[in-house]
Structure formats: C-alpha cells, structure tokens
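Box 3.1 — From sequence to structure: Ribosome-recycling factor
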Amino acid sequence: MISLSYQAFNTQLSTLNLSEVDEEIKFYLDEAEESMGKALQHTGVELTRIRAGKASPAMLDSLRVDYYGTPTPVAQVANVSAPDARTLFIKPWEKNMISEIAKAIKNSDLGLNPQSDAEGVRLNIPAMTEERRRELVKQAKVESEGGKVRIRGIRKDVNEALRKLLKEGASEDAIKDAEAKVQKATDSYIIKVDDLLSKKESEIMTI
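Predicted structure (token representation):
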C-alpha cells in the first residue's frame, strides 16, 4: 500500500515537472517571437527615416517641436500631408505653432528649407542625384543587416536558455523541436527584413 502511494507520488511529481518544463519552453518560444517582432519593427522604423526623395509624412517622425516648453513630435501638434511627390505641408492645430515648426525644421538635420504662410509650413523635397540614391541604398542595407544581427542574436540567446532546460528535466527531443521552431521563426523574420529592404531600395531608386 505504501509502495503504491509512493509510486503514485513519484508519477505525479514527474508529470508536474514535465508540465513546468513545457511551460518554460513555450515561454521562451513566445519570447523569441515577440523579440524578433520588435527587432523587425525597429528595422522598419530606421528604414523609414532614410529619405528616399519622395515626399512622405514619415520623414518628419523624428522632428520635435517646442510646444509650450515641451519637445513634442510634430505629428502631435499638426497635420502632416504630402500634396504631391515633392511637397510636404504641415498645418498646425494652433496657428501660433507655425513659427515654432519652421524653426524646428531649420535647426534639424533634415536639410530642408521651410516656407511659411498663414496656413502652415511647406517643404519642397529636392530630387536626388543617382550617386545620392546609391549611397542611401547602402545605408538601407546597413540598417537591414543590423536587424538581421539582432534577430540572430535573439535566436542564440533563446537556444542557450532552452539547452539549460535539459538539466531541469526537459527531453532532448523536446529541446530539438523547440530549437527547430526558433530557427523557423528566425528564417521567417529574416525574410521579412529582406522584404523591407527590397521595398526601400525600390522607393529610393524610383525617380
């Protein structure tokens, strides 16, 4: 009777440990997916900041305007639109912000000359030379490679964490299966980074 109870206890304990290990594996897989998604998003943001010659409101994402003493994203104080491929128009919610927006643009590293009127601020986006376009393509490739490095780094960290679970009772098959899923996620996000780069290259080289 005692022997049966002891055996049942051992079985229950083993099942509990296995369940806990499975939960940890799932946690690391979810963590890999989330972190790789953030790395992809970061790469997309950095690529967006590379000016491609075509007017886009995203060109001003990093611009901060002095709003009553507080540096504020321009999109929070004005509507930014692109009436055509060579023009951006910034129409603030408050007319007194027109001069502040123009000043912020002049003091930024955008290299653009703001033209103000009673309604807002207009920016003419100059056409780029072929040489400049190729320089920007190189810059985009550097950013995309940085994204890939971050994604591969996440794979390395997660795989190391998974291997430590072998000492906690995880089976080798379970860890190999988890590592395969991490690799699949890695491959998927690398392809997504390549897609972002391809679109950016096309945007830059389109005249």
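Summary of the box: The chain is about 60% helix and 15% strand.
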